[in-house]
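It is worth pausing here to work through a concrete case rather than discussing structure prediction in the abstract. The textbook approach is simple: state the sequence, then state the predicted structure, then interpret. We follow exactly that order.
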Amino acid sequence: MALDPSQIAAAMLKAAKHSLASDWPKARAYTEQEFKRLAQSLADIGTLVAAGTVNEQQARALVQIHKNTTLTVMLTIEGLGIIAVENAINAALAAVTTAVNKAVGLTVL
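Step two, the predicted structure:
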C-alpha cells in the first residue's frame, strides 16, 4: 500500500497546528513546506522498503534523518523554542504513525 504524501502532510499539519497553538501563525509557512517534504520522504522510504532496497533498521535511520532536518529548519523560526518544535514534530508524526507503519509494513515510526 503506497502512502499518499498529501494525506500524510495534511494529518501532520493538523496535529502540529494544534500543538503549536498560538505560535502557529509565525510557524505556518515553514511548517507547511517542511511537513510536505517530510511526508514525501516518508512515502519515498515506504517505496524503498517495498522494493527491498532498505531494511527496517535503515528505514528507521532515514526517518530519523528527515525528522532531524525538519527540526533544524523549524528551529530557525524566531520565537519558537526547541521544546515547542519537538512537541509539534512528535505530535505530527504520532498523527500518522499507524498509517505509515501499516503502509510500509514495518515499524519505522
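Step three, interpretation. Helices lie at 5-20, 24-50, 56-74, 82-104. The mean pLDDT is 95.
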